[in-house]
Each structure stands twice: as C-alpha cells, then as structure tokens.
Amino acid sequence: MMSDSNSTHSQTDGAIASLCADHFDEAVRYGKAIWARSDSLRDRLDQQDALSAAVWGLYRAARTWNPESGPFGPWMRRLIRYEIKEAARQATPVSRAAMRKVKDLAAAQRTLIEELGREPSADEIAEFLQVDMSDLGEVVHLQNTAREATDIDEIVEADFTEVDADAETAALLTEAMEAFGPLSGDERVILALHYLEDVPFREVARVLGKRPDAVSRMHGRAKERLGVWLEAAINEATA
C-alpha cells in the first residue's frame, strides 16, 4: 500500500467533489498519455481500464491531499501513476502452472533447434513434449501473450521512467500557463516557452507565426500586466 504524509489528511466531501470535477479532464488526459506511450501497459491493459485507474487515482488524490504539502497537480499525478501501475500488475495474472508450460515449450524449442539445426515444426514440438496439437496451440498462445508478474513490474517501471518525465513536463507546463492570470493565449505561450522551456524569441515567433519584434513587444506587455496582476493578488491575500 502506498504511504505518504498526505495519506493521513482527509478532505471534506464537498472539497473532494470539487477537486474531482475541476481536475477530471486533466486526469483523463494524463492517463491517456501514460497508456499511449507504454507498450507494456497496452499489452496488459486496454485503454478503458487504464483510464478507470486514472480516475480512481484522481479520487484518492482528492480524498488525501493536504494543501499544506504543495499543489494538488503533482500529488494527483503521483497517485494516478501508482494506480495505473497497480492495475497493470494485477491484470490477468498468469498462473505458475501455465508459466511452467511456457518454459517447457521454450526449452523444447531450444533443444530441437540444436538437434535439428533448424526451427522445429509444430508436429515435432508436440511429439517432443508428448502433447496433442490442440494443447500445443494453447501453450503457444500463452507463450505469445503471457508474462510473469515480476517481468511486468520491471517492464512497466522502465516504461514509466520515460513516460513520467514527458507527461510531468507537459502537465507542469500546463499548470504554469494556467497560472499566468489575465494574459492572452499568445502571451501565455510566449512566457511559458521562453522561461520554462528556454526557447529563444525567434523560435517562439516561428511557433506563433509572428515577427520576432512583435513577440518581443508582446513579451514586454505581458510582463507588465502580469506584474500588476500579481501585485493585486498579493495585496488581496494579505489584506
């Protein structure tokens, strides 16, 4: 079971419902991004199962979030990742008996290749294992689809290393852009790309389809407007 200092905090029913409603679309997008980028997850889960796990992660995050511990977004994404991993690990587990059959088949294939100097036929494998063709077909299917739980853990963890970094960066960029208060969409893009992604103004101009000098002027106006907005927000919070 996952443990964290946040897990001891409990939100009111109203706060839980509000957080779930406000962040539902973001949780679904994040779950889709993780599932789409991970071959091992797609092997193990269909998209709907992954999204169900993501929504459950959102609910758990809303229920346990402690505002004093930091923003909600990172906590939510952490629990979504955890729930999707758990769903992958628990999906259609393969029994030990089935895995023994798979390993026996692999050993038979290796032995026959060494003896025959070529890939064995299905008939030759069935004779070697002393099974009929229908039983062999079932084992071959298992061989093509089955993975042991420990293998799934390792593969999913490896996939999540890259997926987490990309998805987390995108989510943080979205949060930062949403925090740019009264700015227009273009102004938010300019500040986010320039300050968060270190993109030069000439490249930002190319992205927006504008002249570099126009982007530079928009940047200056955006900084002024943001400064006024932040000052007013601080004064209101401390009044």
Question: Could you walk me through the main structural features you see in this protein, from its secondary elements to its overall organization?
Answer:
This protein is mostly helical and 239 residues long. Among the domains are: 1-92; 96-145, Arc Repressor Mutant, subunit A (Orthogonal Bundle). Helix content is 78%, strand content 0%. It has eleven helices and no strands. It has helices at residues 13-37, 39-44, 47-64, 72-90, 96-116, 122-129, 133-145, 149-178, 185-196, 201-208, 212-238. Helix 4 runs antiparallel to helix 8 (149-178), helix 5 (96-116) packs across helix 6 (122-129) and helix 10 (201-208) crosses helix 11 (212-238).
Give the SSE layout.
Blueprint: H1 13-37, H2 39-44, H3 47-64, H4 72-90, H5 96-116, H6 122-129, H7 133-145, H8 149-178, H9 185-196, H10 201-208, H11 212-238
Helix pairs in contact: 1-3, 1-4, 1-8, 3-4, 4-8, 5-6, 5-7, 8-9, 9-10, 9-11, 10-11
| Global geometry | elongated
Radius of gyration: 26 Å
Could you say which structural class the secondary elements and strand pairing correspond to? mainly alpha
Mean pLDDT across all residues, rounded?
76
Characteristics:
single chain; mainly alpha; elongated; Arc Repressor Mutant, subunit A; 239 residues
Short structural summary:
The protein has helices spanning 13-37, 39-44, 47-64, 72-90, 96-116, 122-129, 133-145, 149-178, 185-196, 201-208, 212-238. Among the domains are: 1-92; 96-145, Arc Repressor Mutant, subunit A.
